[in-house]
Predict the 3D structure of the following.
Amino acid sequence: MCLGVPARIIAIADAGRMLAVADILGEKREVNLSCIAEPGDDMTGQIGQWVLVHLGFALSHVDEADARVTLDLLRQVDEAEAGRGHLKASLLA
């Protein structure tokens, strides 16, 4: 199963290559912004934005409230399956 995960953009890693650093469940990952921004855009406007990340690409912007609900539901599923921590590891692999 493929899953897009909400993440918050916390920094721009390389504006020229359209790469940002995102916080995904407390882990920092490099994310490509080319699906949500145009080459030459001022990438600093992305900082603080919530995005849906799949396979290292930010596919769309998402509302913060929706992102937090989704992350909470993912945590609940992980706990219900008695796999504490496994969900986070699998999403970030």
Remarks:
- The mean pLDDT is 88.
